[in-house]
Amino acid sequence: MALIVQKFGGTSVAGPERIRNAAMRVKSELDKGNQVAVVLSAMSGVTDELVGHARELSSLKTPEALAEYDTVVASGEQVTVGLLALALQEMGIKSRSFLSWQVKIKTDETHGKARIEEIDAHIIEESLARGEVPVIPGFQGVTAEGRVTTLGRGGSDTSGVALAAALKADRCDIYTDVEGVYTTDPRIVTKARKLNKIAYEEMLEMASLGAKVLQTRSVEMAMKYKVRVQVLSSFTDAPGTLLVDEEEVMERRLITGIAYTKTDARITLAGVADRPGIAASVFGPLADAEINVDMIVQNVSADGTTDITFTVAKTDLARAEDCLKKAQAELKYKKMITDPNVAKVSVVGVGLKSHAGLAQKMFQTLAEKNINILVISTSEIKISVLIAEEYMELAIRSLHTAYGLEG
Ligand code: ADP
Ligand code: ASP
Ligand code: MG
User: Fold this and answer.
1) Residue 360 domain boundaries
2) Number of domains comprising the chain
3) What is the domain-level CATH number for residue 383?
4) CATH no. for residue 11?
5) Which of 11, 337, 395, 396 is the most exposed place for a label (fewest CB within 10 A)?
6) Same domain flag for 402 and 272
7) 10 lies in a domain?
């Protein structure tokens, strides 16, 4: 008998009919003689709506406000767990829901993007031992003081993997609306190819560069606790994608895939004095305001001034502008230009470590399509470029073809 954690995403629980379908998936695992614990998202669209309501009433700047934000946005999952337990009971399966404070999914106090610190697995183990299917809300936890927290958007994946780790489950199945992890988002490139296996490291890079099929932290956690994660569709019976150690990926590939994100904005400070310490004076105040900077490029120039371009999260853009305006007297830049309409497109693959031509292929492909590169950043197994958002899909499709990733 195996113990499986099944996690269903928003589209897989989007209404009573879909919830019944999820219950059928639980039943078929039970019919194989396995034990099942379930982790759920809110119905698709619900979290967005709740976030919208909270933002309408508050600028969400204080810790007190963020705590209430969590109380509000965590409620979507409270609905689906109860509904799935009801659907299972109707099928003659013993089931009950547990809210995060009942399981004690303990997190730190960073409301809005809390980290799971510990899960008291015994409450769920006792439920399983009673022959029940425990159903747990994803995306949330509780602080030491007993306040509800949320884990950041897409956080139910992390809840699923964390529960699988705590229960030492044999597998964590992440049910979603695509059949697995593809070479790129199949909604943008219809010819994207499903990967049977992907190494944790490759998936971590894809997720952190924007592939939202798995939340980045869920991959980190799966890697750390050696959880066998499978990503698959709740709507078809096709085999999914298994996350495995690098040695287990039989099919050796240089490039894994292409990821993208539209969540960043560009800031250029033009005509900054080109002197030692200037980068520290630009990025210091941003760091103090807890604004993360991602890509950075700085030019050298002949007349003693330089331009610095970098990206911050779109949600931090207004705060970053404020911060830099305040620092104008010290930085003495001539102009600040901001642009939220940019996208970051990244090529990911272990081949980038050793094959210089693979990077060149990216620049060549974009040049052939007349797509201007605003910023470039690289690390061992990825290259990212910042481009105008309107060319994003064209860039992804062209790169996907250029690297021969099609099925
Ligand atoms: P869920 O609600 O089930 O958690 P998400 O919307 O969070 O689903 O994640 C699934 C989506 O991730 C897919 O619908 C797809 O558009 C997107 N996606 C982005 N990159 C990839 C990729 N490389 N492979 C598969 N899906 C991807
Ligand atoms: N419902 C949450 C969200 O929309 C968590 C999740 O779906 O993973 O972000
Ligand atoms: Mg998701």
Assistant:
1) 247-407
2) 2
3) 3.30.2130.10
4) 3.40.1160.10
5) 337
6) yes
7) yes
Taking the centre of ligand 2 as the mean of its atom positions, its distance from the CA of residue 11, in whole angstroms, is 10
Q: How many CA atoms lie within 13 A of 329 on its CB side?
A: 1
Question: Residue written as tokens 């790169």?
Answer: 399
Q: Is 45 in the pocket of ligand 1 (CB under 6 A)?
A: no
Q: Are residues 315 and 400 in the same domain?
A: yes
Band (pLDDT 50/70/90 cuts) for residue 81 is: very high
**CB distance 212 to ligand 2 below 6 Å:** no
Burial letters 274-294, b for 16+ CB under 10 A, else e: beeebeeebeebbeeeebebb
Summarize pLDDT for 131-150 with one digit per residue, the tens: 999 999 999 999 999 999 99
Shared domain for 164 and 298, answered yes or no, is no
Phi first, then psi: give them for residue 271, nearest 5 degrees: 70, 45
In a domain, 395, yes or no: yes
- Read off the pLDDT of each residue in 170-194 and give the average, rounded to a whole number: 97
Statement to judge: residues 270 and 171 lie in one domain? no
Q: Taking the CB of residue 338, how many other CB atoms lie within 10 A of it?
A: 14
Our mutation pick for probing the ligand 1 site, out of 47, 190, 213, counting the most ligand atoms within 8 A of Cβ, is: 213
pLDDT digits 0-9 by tens, 8-67? 999 999 999 999 999 999 999 999 999 999 999 999 999 999 999 999 999 888 899 999
